[in-house]
Amino acid sequence: MRIALAALGALCCTCAAAEERPLWELGIGVGVLALPDYRGADQGRGWVLPVPYAVYRGDVFKADRKGVRGELGGFERMKLQLSFAASLPVDSSRNDARAGMPDLKPSLEIGPALEFTLWRSGERDLLELRLPVRAAFTLEASPESVGWVSTPNLNLDLPGRGLLRGWNVGFLVGAVFGDRRQHEYFYGVAPQFASAQRPAYEAHGGYAGLLSIAAISRRLDGYWVGAFLRADTLRGAVFADSPLVRRDYYLAAGVAISWIFRESTERVEAPD
Fold it and tell me: Which of 33, 52, 143, 192 is the most buried (most CB within 10 A)?
């Protein structure tokens, strides 16, 4: 169940003219998520999670709604960013498809992402090609590698109009790819866990479906608010015939609010 919470901020980038803002800001808040147990599951849960808010607007290094990144000198339309994703734990006793199998541990994905600006209109409209590659690890006392993930995508940022005037609006569409270890972790069925209803299954690496995300966010006085909706299709995925895949689609949604409790006195010129 890869969390799309990052879409609350990372999708919605610059949508306002540049002005003086704090060099850095810190905050904390809460997010409410509705997620399937994993991509392809027909059961899911609601989650209430803490949402940190951290912004740094340096000349070269930046950490904001677009993520953690560094500017590549001499390449105005190309940036190197640090890409993150995560998954929450799954209690197999509460999921019919996985009953009797080991629980899925929470995991963290981290790796580089190249961003290419394809189109920009002033400081307001932006279309980017993003090429992230992330290594995935379980979050436990002795972390284990659970493969690699790549989600090449197109990201469009626009200023809100009409009822959404004043909001940042973002749309993302892309493909999902994973190696054999990643797919085996989520969709493989070892022989000792096979049954008449759940045959043994060995997953392979490759194409894992399409993803699409829509998100909105807004910076208010002392607060940040955001929401997202994610819809994936698993049709054509290399693991589509796994007995653990009960649906060929994935829907997730969430809202969040963060209170910004500290900011620097130093100001820099930066967009909202």
Answer: 33
